[in-house]
Every structure is written in structure tokens, then in C-alpha cells.
Amino acid sequence: MSNQITGRAYITVKGERLRSKEGATLKFGGVEREDVLGDAGVLGYAEKVIAPEVECTIAHNAAFSLKSFMEITDETVIFETDTGKTYSLRNAWCKGALELSKGEVKVRFGAISCEEN
Question: How far, in Å, CA of 49 to CA of 79, rounded?
Fold first, then answer.
């Protein structure tokens, strides 16, 4: 068993590793439980489904096409950690308008499912 804690993540889209900066995040998705409260205290919980999501900041250069990323609607996004865990977002899409600022582009991907490999 390794004592290493996840510190870095590598994001791959369309078979190419992105030039992602530090701080990429993965939401695994699934069921989220919320407290249900009443006058007498906690009544229980209610569930709602949360979509998987990857968010990262990409260092922009001439090879990065904003348009091609905006058109992503059915791709596999791989989130690989430096501890060897890999997560695959299936049927992923780019979630919003991209903004280029100070040489960086924030990208968010939503997906139908997330698999731990």
C-alpha cells in the first residue's frame, strides 16, 4: 500500500493530453443526499442525481482551438491521477462558453457516466 496522496491530475480528451494547469477537479457524480428538516428536527434525507464533471484550466497556445472544444458533445474524458487511479467520463460534452484570459482557458466537461478504472 502506498502512502502517496493524489497531488496531480492529467486530463486527456480526444486521445490527447491537455496542457492543464494545477487544480483540475473531478466530480464523480451519482446520488447526492440532502437533509430534510422539520419543526421537530431532522426528518431524513432526499436524493437527487448529480452529473459527473471535470473542470480544468488549460494553458493556451496557438495549437489550442476554442471552437473545437466548444463542439465536443460525445467524447471520452480521462482524468488520471499521479497515484495511478484513472476515471473515464463517457459521452462527455463541453459545458459552456469558453473564455480566453491571460493565456488560460477554463474548461468544464459534463458526462453521462464516470467509471473508476
Answer: 21
Q: Are 34 and 45 in contact (CB under 8 A)?
A: yes
Q: Are 37 and 8 in contact (CB under 8 A)?
A: no
Q: What are the per-10-residue average pLDDT scores of the chain (117 residues)?
A: 89 95 96 96 97 97 92 97 96 94 96 96
d(CA 116, CA 31): 16
Whole-angstrom Cα distance, residue 69 to residue 13?
A: 9
* Residue 110 to residue 77: CA distance in whole angstroms: 9
d(CA 67, CA 74): 15
Round the CA-based radius of gyration of the chain to a whole number and report it. Answer: 17
Distance of alpha carbon 45 from alpha carbon 43, whole angstroms: 7
